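[job 4471] stage=fold_predict status=RUNNING
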Amino acid sequence: MLPGFAPAIVRASGGPQFAISIDPALRREPLTGRVFVFVSRRATPEPRLQYGGLANTIPLFGRDVDALRAGSSSVIDAGTSGYPLATPRDLPPGDYTIQALANVYTRFPRADGNTIWAHNDRGEGQQFTISPGNLVSAPVHVRIDPDRRQTFALKLVKAIPPLAPIPDTAFVKHVRMQSALLTKFWGVPIYLGAVVLLPRDYDAQGDRRYPAVYVQGHYSPDPPFHFNPEAPPETPAGRDARLATTNEESAYELTQAWMRGDTPPMVAITFQHPTPYYDDSYAVNSANNGPYGDALLTELIPHLETQFRLSADGRSRFLIGGSTGGWEALALQIYHPDAFNGAWALYPDPVDFHRLQIGDMYEDTSAFSTQRSAWTSSEIPAQRTRDGNTVATMREESRLEAVLGSHGRSAEQFNAWDAAYGPVLQDGYPGEIWDKRTGAIDHDVVNYMRDHDFDLRDYLERNWSRIGPSLVGKLHIDVGDEDDYFLNLACYRLQSFLDATANPAAKAVFAFGRPMKPHGWQAKPIIEYLREMTDRLEH
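[job 4471] inference complete, writing structure tokens
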């Protein structure tokens, strides 16, 4: 046996197996959650940190555990699903470094009468490989021969430590508050947070009240707009390459302008609102996630307005965000038309479920493939490069989500839509828009999503006579014509409706990046959007 190799125990079934146990010195109470094995040809960094998501990851395999006790083992074997390899039996022979991880779940006795188990975010934004409290084994070097009967023992011996708090600065402040509404719904303490970026003259003008721009997006501990006084200036070559795909300033350019006071006098705020299903609640009330929309509007925003001298007038509140944040910016503006004075939605998530990326959820039967004839079908891509090459298919992305978590608990994109938009099933977990293993679309779930107002274009069409007068001139959408996730397709449909509105006309502004502008493209630098916001306020 080579030095550092784990002992192999012969078992009846063929191929490699991984027996995962808990060190009694680490944890004595039973563990409910999901255990994983990561397999890498590289020893550093440790394998769990080599997980790179859909298009850039090492093999991993996962399964649920229910009340796993110290001294007992959970075995990952040929019957366990993995990604990108289907099972451990598909590992080529060779030398590897392996590591086990347990994603620890919390019991949630919810106010709707359902009790579920899911991962409670610990300030990391649902990143299971670095989440404080999750358990890991030491990396072990092994030689795998899939033609032999091998079992490798992996003991969970360490808990990932808590994240260090980020200190406040003169410009950047951090807010964390327990939400009474969400705590009541989930049955355990649930917190909301925010990162606040103050203007240069904030302390010097102690009586002044400021407009606020709420920056929507995935969970991040970073300040709005990547404000970073330590960011180095870009080289001309780097700046030119970046501007080939986006007009956003570099962190250095925007930071310097903000610190000089060359940006409009506003307070910029990013929300932090991870749920047990995703790193972001989509800022809406949801059967599965709970009343996040109400919590943000009635708890967090009033708290911020009091603490940071913000104007509480809806005319002084603005929204901007990209991707998931782009959808949220639109949704908050549309659902609360008088609470905000404009939304700048950059490359938003699907705003019309006739184009949930590519697929038509109302008419299609499969999210994975399109039937071309009685004998032929085509795989549906989920992500592309801006020159049109497929990065991953809907089938592949769905399979990864099924490996990362059952019952909609992958904390990934498709399951995030299930949780935010979908119904609660009898077992207490979200109804899925499509089966992540077969691709079969559940039209009852899709119709529920539409009937509960999560298809934004459909909601606007049904309610325009009521909400339209409060939305005139407030909707701005930017998206590239070669968006990586095909988000431009739904935006075309939204534009068709808004351009045709009357009594009143929407006066919505659309910008489509051409040619070949990918996900992340926007029409203007951030400072220009901020100036448009303050122009609305002044007029």
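[job 4471] summary: The radius of gyration is 24 Å.
[job 4471] exit 0
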